[in-house]
Amino acid sequence: MRKSPSLESVIKPPACLTGRHASFSYNRANSKLSVERKDPLAALAREYGGSKRNALLKWCQKKTEGYPNIDVTNFSSSWSDGLAFCALLHTYLPAHIPYQELVSQDKDRNLTLAFQAAESIGIKPSLDIDELMHTDRPDWQSVMQYVSQIYKYFET
């Protein structure tokens, strides 16, 4: 019975890789998986298509679908009354957020509940409740940054 050739004997490396000084090393830091670990929103953008911002927005819409009084269309006014934060966190921490009891008019309570729930699991508050209380259009970049912390904590 004849023995099959080994894979190494069938596949010959190019001449430039066979010399004494030739070396090939796999650089883990540049691997796709490593990049996704450093930037999980890149994977989300590939999944949903488009930019990281739009992918994160679509993820928020998917997570908050079916919640009353929630219509996430942006990272500013959609979050101003705190209900979107509460709905998003309620999907992961239902014991921390009594969503059925919340009303959009009680902005202070909504924001406080959401931020306390997030902080209880180690998500640091990067938004200021006092600032949010005095605007109907919070800074979209700050809101997106905070929401991305929630995404990274629960989804990666």
Report what the structure shows:
- This protein has 156 residues and is an all-alpha fold.
- The chain is 49% helix and 0% strand.
- It contains 8 helices and no strands.
- Helix 2 (32-38) packs across helix 3 (40-48), helix 3 (40-48) packs across helix 4 (52-64) and helix 5 packs parallel to helix 6 (107-120).
- The radius of gyration is 24 Å and the shape is globular.
- It starts with 6 loop residues before the first helix and ends with a helix.
**What is the overall pLDDT average?**
84
CA radius of gyration: 24 Å
Low-confidence stretches: 4-14, 16-35
Order of helices and strands: HHHHHHHH
Helix content: 40-55%
Strand content: under 5%
Q: Tell the overall outline.
A: globular
DSSP E strands, number: 0
In short:
This protein has eight helices and no strands.
Question: Can you give keywords for this protein?
Answer:
mainly alpha, 49% helix, globular, 0% strand, single chain, 156 residues, 8 helices
Helix-strand blueprint:
Layout: H1 7-10, H2 32-38, H3 40-48, H4 52-64, H5 83-90, H6 107-120, H7 129-133, H8 140-155
Helix pairs in contact: 2-3, 3-4, 5-6
